[in-house]
Write a structure and sequence with these properties.
82 residues; alpha+beta; two-stranded parallel sheet; 3 helices; 37% helix; 18% strand
Length: 82
């Protein structure tokens, strides 16, 4: 039986201190939503390590993209194998 790791918390968890490292990356990844998620997880202290231009870009990037992970296909394929 698999037991959940005590180090991994479910979505929506808060932490006293959050250190968010935001390296240069694709605009598709650097969104306002990602920044919001990091900010809202910090209860007492938030440290963002990044370049000003990257954070400014994230604030301006409100695009949300549909994720094409293929999860539906994979789940159907696994179900068929059972």
């Amino acid at each position: 039986m698999l037991m959940p790791s005590p180090y991994i918390k479910p979505n929506g968890s808060e932490f006293d201190v959050v250190i968010m490292v935001v390296p240069p990356s694709s605009n598709m990844l650097l969104t306002r939503n990602l920044l919001y998620t990091g900010i809202t997880r910090a209860k007492k202290l938030l440290i963002i390590i990044s370049q000003d231009r990257i954070i400014q870009g994230m604030l301006q990037n409100s695009d949300t993209k549909k994720r094409n992970t293929g999860l539906t296909y994979k789940l159907k394929h696994i179900y068929e194998e059972l």
